[in-house]
Amino acid sequence: MSLLECRLERELLSTEEESAIAQVGKARELYQLSFSGRLGHDLPRHGNKEKINSGLKLSTSRHRFDRVDIGNQPVAPFEYLDFLETVVFPHTVNTFSTKFLGHMTAPLPEFITEVAGVISRMNQNQVKVETSNVLTLLERQVLGAVHHKIYRKQAGFYESYMQCPESCLGVVTGGGTLANITSLSYALNSAFRADGNFAGLTKEGLVSALNHYGFKDVVVIGSKRMHYSVDKAAKLLGLGERNVIRLETDSHGRVDLAQMRSNLEECRKGKIHVLALIGIAGATETGSVDPLEEIGALAAEFGVHFHADAAWGGAYTLSSNHRELVKGIEMADTVTICAHKQLYIPMGTSLCIFKSPGFASHSENNTAYQCKKGSYDLGRYTIEGSRPASILMLHALLNLWGDAGMGHVFDTTLSLTQNFTGKIKSSENFLLVQEPALNIVVYRYIPVTLREKVLTKEKLTYAEIELINEINKKIQSEQFINGNSFVSSTTLVNGEEEVVVFRAVFCNPLTRENDLDALLADQAKIARDIEIA
Ligand SMILES: *Cc1c(COP(=O)(O)O)cnc(C)c1O
């Protein structure tokens, strides 16, 4: 169409048509706003030069974020970009730094961030086939593949169940917390399923379920190192934190099996339903791994659900050279694995794997408009509704890294852990608190004045114990503010005593030995300055 023809056509349009065109034009304009490829150019990357933390104190920076009139006056993209680059980005935490060694947050592989971009561009919703189509099958396949890594069932098992909409080998969740909640909720629904004239927990509720099945109460049993998401699950299920029984551990942080057995016996006598035994494969604070095989045997003997909280350690099942680290995991009825921890995917993706294909059938959700019986809709089996296609990132990781790539990354992070542990053991400044089972190290600084006493294992006074705790807390918070290196801190309760420790997490395979040395030197210097002051 020539320019003249265009003009002629325009003149022929009615005013309604013109205003409709203007409206679409405006919408198109709004959609076409762009940062022209400049967004995120100066984000902190893998390099060592960048600080981990700018030292910004939230309590003194609140005023920068105290206006509620966001959006009253729209700003131009370049102006907004300037805001991000000056006020926001420089004060985020550089989780990609090779000296950021305190949390379960790692740098992401380049291809993962690329897939993440494509996932937002496709904007699929995994809740139902009509908003995700083939990605439904892909999600079921990845869940099946991870199921196979854990349980190693025969090919026929996966042929029957992996893509059969009436079965479910697991669900994708927005995090480990939700995976743990899913497993415990579904285990309760499965235990208190429909039976005779009782329509099941999901229809009749907990009070009727207890009456029908003849129980007085419901508890969850695991070690004192259980993640607090188990308490959240108990609260949501109408149980309560007191219904979570936390048992003592041995010097390796492994749950006391004798205590577990006696609790199971007591519950049996007292008509208390044990909702689950929980075995931890990689405790959040210490990385310790419970004796999963023994817990599995106890669960079988007492007919109790066994949940493996492998949010951290479950990743090792994806490398044939490392599966031994979490052996016994295959005895669990349900397994939590966080893909956003040791599977190098951005925050917000975890898995809950179900050993039995029929496990979730007592927890199914159906509506008239989605998740109908017989449909492929994944929402039938999830607590969440709308959900991103983040599984594509895990699919990409499994394909591009494969068994060998995963194995290489785990070898690297585990040998960094051993290297660091050796440095702690041979340093006069620090004391190793527990031999690491995986890639988390807990250790502490010992003040110069107390080294002799600690070395000879002399009994410390209450004041001396407090002194050690205080200096460890101070070192950690100064180290965070200074932003040159980072480990986290936690307090381990051992009997009566509270032990403040540093917690180093080695999940960045790009970290090098000189980063470890720099971190320990940084801590020693901060400690010396505190001791002199
Ligand atoms: C991290 C973690 C969780 C919770 O995972 P989120 O993704 O943070 O919700 C649960 N259990 C263990 C052992 C963990 O380490």
What is the topological layout?
Elements: H1 3-12, H2 15-32, H3 58-61, H4 77-88, H5 110-122, H6 134-151, H7 155-161, E1 170-173, H8 176-191, H9 201-213, E2 217-223, H10 229-236, E3 244-247, H11 257-269, E4 272-280, H12 292-302, E5 306-309, E6 334-338, H13 339-342, E7 350-354, H14 391-400, H15 402-426, E8 430-432, E9 440-445, H16 451-455, H17 462-482, E10 488-494, E11 497-505, H18 513-532
Parallel strand pairs: 2-3, 2-4, 4-5, 5-6
Antiparallel strand pairs: 1-7, 6-7, 8-9, 9-11, 10-11
The structure holds pyridoxal-5'-phosphate.
Can you identify the CATH superfamily of the largest domain? Type I PLP-dependent aspartate aminotransferase-like (Major domain)
- Distinct small molecules: pyridoxal-5'-phosphate
Number of structural units classed as domains: 2
Task: Assign the CATH topology of the largest domain.
Answer: Aspartate Aminotransferase, domain 2
The percent range for helix content is: 40-55%
Tally of alpha and pi helices: 18
Secondary structure tally: strands: 11
Judging by the overall fold, what is the CATH architecture of the largest domain?
Answer: 3-Layer(aba) Sandwich
Strands side by side in the biggest sheet: 1-7-6-5-4-2-3
Structural class of the secondary structure composition?
Answer: alpha/beta
Which of globular, elongated, flat, extended, rod-shaped describes the shape?
globular
CA-CA gap between termini: 82 Å
